[in-house]
Design a protein that fits this description.
Length: about 110
């Protein structure tokens, strides 16, 4: 898993490349913990797989962002990853956007 962090219009963008699973989700969680931003977009365009520990990490980040008055958006996920969110009903919990630009524009 490779992660890149950037800023755009006051929103922190976290671009993830690879798989988010039991072995990589702790590292991803640490990246989120270092981010002071209350507005975060996670770009999942290059994520091929997420397991339950990866989902749990994203739920934790969402809860933390909301408790601090912030927001978290997910962008650009593949059909395979999106179906996982739909099956687990997490698509009702998260703000999911088709692409990064739309997510950055609406997470504000």
């Amino acid at each position: 898993m490779d992660v890149k962090t950037s800023q755009q219009d006051g929103v922190t963008i976290i671009q993830v490349n690879g798989e988010i699973n039991i072995s990589t989700s702790p590292a991803l969680k640490k990246i989120f913990e270092k981010e002071p931003s209350k507005k975060i977009v996670v770009d999942l365009e290059k994520v091929s797989y997420i397991d339950s520990s990866g989902l749990a990490t994203l739920v934790e980040v969402l809860k933390r962002a909301r408790s601090q008055g912030g927001a978290l958006g997910l962008a650009g996920m593949s059909d395979k990853v999106k179906s996982l969110f739909e099956i687990t009903k997490l698509d009702k919990l998260f703000s999911i956007f088709p692409n990064l630009q739309e997510a950055v524009g609406r997470v504000k």
